[in-house]
Amino acid sequence: MTDKYPYEPKPDDRSDNVEKLQDMVQDTIQNIEEAHETMKHASGDDKEKIKAKNKRREEAIEGMRQEIKDEAKQ
């Protein structure tokens, strides 16, 4: 080939996106649970950092669940 980019891009395969997102949700929930265990032995400042991180994780889960709904519609 004489093209600048001789390789074709892979087609967009979204067939397993819902499954991947569900796995990500489960992994994130597990991380939250593990962080709760860690908090039992953490100091005040570390507890606050863990709480903040778990809050971000919960927000991420909500986003992933919305994306699951969107993907399931397609």
Q: Would you kindly provide a written description of the structure presented here, covering whatever features stand out?
A:
With 74 residues, this protein is an all-alpha fold. Helices cover 72% and strands 0% of the residues. It contains 2 helices and no strands. Helix 1 (17-39) runs antiparallel to helix 2 (44-73). 1% of the residues are buried.
Can you tag this structure with a few keywords?
elongated, mainly alpha, 74 residues
What's the arrangement of secondary structure elements?
Elements: H1 17-39, H2 44-73
Largest sheet: none
Task: Please state the oligomeric state of the protein chains shown.
Answer: single chain
Number of helices: 2
Helix content: over 70%
Roughly what is the average pLDDT, rounded to an integer?
91
User: Beta fraction of the residues?
Assistant: under 5%
* Cα separation of the termini: 36 Å
Low-confidence regions = none
User: Helices and strands: which structural class?
Assistant: mainly alpha
Question: What does the overall shape look like?
Answer: elongated
Order of helices and strands: HH
